[in-house]
Design goal:
This protein is an alpha/beta fold and about 190 residues long. The protein has a single domain, classed as Rossmann fold (3-Layer(aba) Sandwich), CATH 3.40.50. The strands form 3 sheets. A 6-stranded mixed sheet has the order 3-1-6-7-11-10, sandwiched between helices. It has a 3-stranded mixed sheet with strand order 2-4-5, covered by helices on one side. Strands 8-9 form a two-stranded parallel ribbon. β8, α5 and β9 form a beta-alpha-beta unit. The longest helix has 13 residues. The chain is globular, with a radius of gyration of 15 Å.
Length: about 190
């Protein structure tokens, strides 16, 4: 039986921050259960592609439809080795769901590996799990990390920060870095 990873997504999750980790973790043999509040396996969420085209903030374009692989209401955190929280606009609204907050708190209580990219740490701040931890995020989320009692670390977008059971990265250019660190936290070994 494959080891399982839970992936929290929602409508307008960032495309690369969802598709790349989902495919990479699946390729490594993990069963990735991608879930969204109020949705079931087979339902889809819309993704968004974020890029910098010269404005002061990112531009958002419509991405793909991403099919969920499990039912949100059936999630039992004891069944999972780790949690991956995608970015985009989804975190700002799925963090309003009480069960999303409970799920995150349960992973931290059990000291299981957690990865959060870009705006994903908005869910961590809402869950109150960042006190005393170093984390990074999309720069606009930095003040949220600080207000939640964490230490915001400003790094290049293609890097990752690890503290205890948590791996974070500022944006999709950091997919490789955050996945390498998350896989280490999971205790997996990749031999090339």
């Amino acid at each position: 039986m494959a080891k399982k990873i839970l992936m929290l997504v929602g409508d307008f999750t960032e495309d690369y921050e969802t598709m790349v980790p989902f495919q990479a973790l699946s390729m490594l043999g993990y069963q990735v259960d991608a879930v969204c509040p109020d949705k079931k396996a087979g339902d889809v969420v819309a993704t968004a592609v974020h890029d910098f085209l010269g404005e002061q903030t990112y531009t958002e374009l419509r991405g793909h439809n991403f099919a969920l692989t499990a039912d949100f209401d059936a999630v039992k955190t004891a069944d999972y080795e780790g949690l991956f929280i995608t970015g985009g606009r989804a975190p700002e609204y799925i963090r309003l769901n009480a069960r999303v907050i409970e799920i995150v708190q349960e992973f931290f209580k059990d000291k299981k590996p957690v990865a959060a990219i870009c705006h994903g740490p908005q869910i961590l701040t809402a869950a109150g799990v960042l006190k005393g931890l170093k984390a990074t995020a999309y720069p606009a989320v930095g003040p949220d990390i600080t207000l939640a009692g964490g230490t915001y670390v400003e790094i290049d977008a293609d890097k990752a920060v690890v503290d205890a059971n948590l791996a974070t990265s500022p944006a999709w250019p950091g997919n490789t870095a955050i996945l390498v660190e998350f896989i280490k936290l999971l205790g997996a070994k990749i031999e090339i």
